[in-house]
Amino acid sequence: MKLVAKDITIIAMMIAIIEVCKIVLANVPNIELTSFFIIIFTLYMGKRILVVIPAFILIEGLMFGFSIWWVMYLYVWPILVLLTYIFRKMKSAVSFSILSGVFGLMFGFLCSWVYIFLDIKNGTSMAFAWWISGIPWDIVHGIGNFFIMLVLYHPITHVMKKLRMEKM
User: Fold this and answer.
1) What confidence tens digit (pLDDT) does each residue in 50-87 have?
2) What is the pTM of this model?
3) How far apart are CA 117 and CA 35, in angstroms?
4) Closest to 149 (Cα-Cα) out of 78, 61, 87
5) DSSP secondary structure letters along 65-117
6) How many Cβ atoms from other residues are within 10 Å of residue 21's Cβ?
7) How many CA atoms lie within 13 A of 38 on its CB side?
């Protein structure tokens, strides 16, 4: 993919939007706009998302340190991009709210996979225990994702369609 100055500017803006929203909501446990914007940007910004995700993950590591959570981000956010791409033909707020909500519910389960590789002998037990202990937070995450998408889908997709018409 060849990037021109306009693409780089748009990519930087997408990353900034995700990062600012993440920081603003940092004190509200498991309520986030990251999933929402990754879904929206995957739907409306085309291949640029393939640069946004690695850059976002790298910036997160630089800002907050490279730890096990960072390894989780290496595969969790690309999974959301892939799922969104697979279901991109859906056009309803409810459909994408369900996708976002299920992703939030499954976030802890997906993140737990990294523990399997930490300890060959006990990794599966560690992953299972980590996932089970986080289920209450995954429920909050899933419900939050569902309602954020339900409320913001139409106004933001309306803006994205207008931007697309202006030939970003």
Assistant:
1) 999 999 999 999 999 999 999 999 999 999 999 999 99
2) 0.94
3) 25
4) 87
5) --SHHHHHHHHHHHHHHHHHHHTTT---HHHHHHHHHHHHHHHHHHHHHHHHH
6) 15
7) 30
